[in-house]
Amino acid sequence: xxxxxxxxxxxxxxxxxxxxxxxxxxxxxxxxxxxxxxxxxxxxxxxxxxxxxxxxxxxxxxxxxxxxxxxxxxxxxxxxxxxxxxxxxxxxxxxxxxxxxxxxxxxxxxxxxxxxxxxxxxxxxxxxxxxxxxxxxxxxxxxxxxxxxxxxxxxxxxxxxxxxxxxxxxxxxxxxxxxxxxxxxxxxxxxxxxxxxxxxxxxxxxxxxxxxxxxxxxxxxxxxxxxxxxxxxxxxxxxxxxxxxxxxxxxxxxxxxxxxxxxxxxxxxxxxxxxxxxxxxxxxxxxxxxxxxxxxxxxxxxxxxxxxxxxxxxxxxxxxxxxxxxxxxxxxxxxxxxxxxxxxxxxxxxxxxxxxxxxxxxxxxxxxxxxxxxxxxxxxxxxxxxxxxxxxxxxxxxxxxxxxxxxxxxxxxxxxxxxxxxxxxxxxxxxxxxxxxxxxxxxxxxxxxxxxxxxxxxxxxxxxxxxxxxxxxxxxxxxxxxxxxxxxxxxxxxxxxxxxxxxxxxxxxxxxxxxxxxxxxxxxxxxxxxxxxxxxxxxxxxxxxxxxxxxxxxxxxxxxxxxxxxxxxxxxxxxxxxxxxxxxxxxxxxxxxxxxxxxxxxxxxxxxxxxxxxxxxxxxxxxxxxxxxxxxxxxxxxxxxxxxxxxxxxxxxxxxxxxxxxxxxxxxxxxxxxxxxxxxxxxxxxxxxxxxxxxxxxxxxxxxxxxxxxxxxxxxxx
Length: 718
Hints:
- By secondary structure, this protein is mainly α.
- Helix content is 56%, strand content 2%.
- InterPro entries: ASCC2, ASCC2_CUE, CUE, UBA-like_sf.
């Protein structure tokens, strides 16, 4: 039926089909190969143990148990066809994850042994189904290609982040190793789940904000990002909210904290994703603000005794889980890398100390954390990883002991200073004068020691002169200092190369590089504005005209003298078009000023300037025209003027013309007004009315009229 060592996604099977039993070949994963079976949804056991309800639960659960047992007995290909294409199966599994009783939930398991046995069977079968769904290779013959497996579980929603969280809560206890391998394989084969987890964490943080809001507490992290509602002052507090609402709130907090702890405990690789969202600080802040308020409400309000005990148990459980969540985050993001000797060990130590410093603002959370996970153990770990921190912790050990004895945090400022010093490590923050003072004070007591050895001791012991002197006198120096020569001189500091020798600039080796050139052309260097020639000298300099004279000699058309050669035939040269003297020429009107007193237009003169018949008059008239044309060319400015200046001049001319006509421009319109709810002035109301009445004059109105106008002018084809 199946070929060996072929993945299920590439496998094809041949099966009989139809009443006649004809064979057909189908892919191994095909909807037609799914068995017709209806899986029932899960219902939790009855809490009161009524016989009728118990019998109904047992009968209903028996069907679910038999169906799941049948599913697990299917071969590899049939199992995956049922899982992928049977929607009733997914509804059955989802209903169990949603309604199965958690650790603190009341259930009727203790009322009837049969109910407890049936619940255990269903619990085991559901876990086995999810475990098989998370396995892409069951044997050498039965397996799925990893890439196809990743697409199947992700695209068909066989697993998602809420399902994985519920799986950790329900099956994490007693199956943590097996569940870790299962979730690890899911995240390894399909890395998209890391992105889904990254998008889920803000929703988890929002749960904390909702609880604080329900209790009437304003979170410091949310700030004033959202405007306050008008009825914000009527928000109920934990002391005033209804009993059922308070119980639901406590249940909501308990379920959230338990789920997050189970997930991080089962799959520690997710701690780094939670760290990216600053989850630890948000958790400690929520603990400090919400837990005391809820505890006070449960203690002082008059509830039913059983309900009060249940809420108090859930609050205590939530407190414990929140502290354990903080420890898991610190353990896997800071402490574990330090123990493993990671490369960036210093950064992990700084992260740990910064987290402890952030906890100082949350006094109650820090006290509860220290009670469950002593900070002294973490500090001891730091001493082993960084021996140079030991003197600082040793000299400040009294502060930590006082902090342990006084949980109310009276010594928190000193403890905070201790952590800040630890964060600084051995970095010297002393000035040169202070360092010299420490050296001289130690050498006054121990003159045989060299300055180099004293500096090494100060660096080793955090620049604490008293601790250095005490360890030298009692011969308790660290092994690294014992190997040094006690008469070691102070190391000579190597002078840094000059900046000029190591500089690099785009102007290196140019003609003005004074660092690489000995001589410069000082004629090209001046201070301030360069002193050039005077304006008169520049205008009188006609050298450029003389340079261009020879160039334009070839284009000369004016001939001053005309050489006339005697022709042997008696005829004169008429090459230049000169006519012989005509004695019959009428010179009666040569002395009259023709048209001198007429008010002729310029265009008329231009039209008649070629009407002269006398060549001499023509030459004279052309010279006059050239003179006036040159003057006009001098006066005319061909430079492109500033458009802004032109607009100002046009606006001035328009205003002058309107003032002469008696036109008064309308006043400036203001339709925006002030903020809503504060009233508007009468001018703004009138402007808004004027805009509403005249808005059809412009903008996008009267489009049909303008379209008709364009069509009439032939701009739009009709």
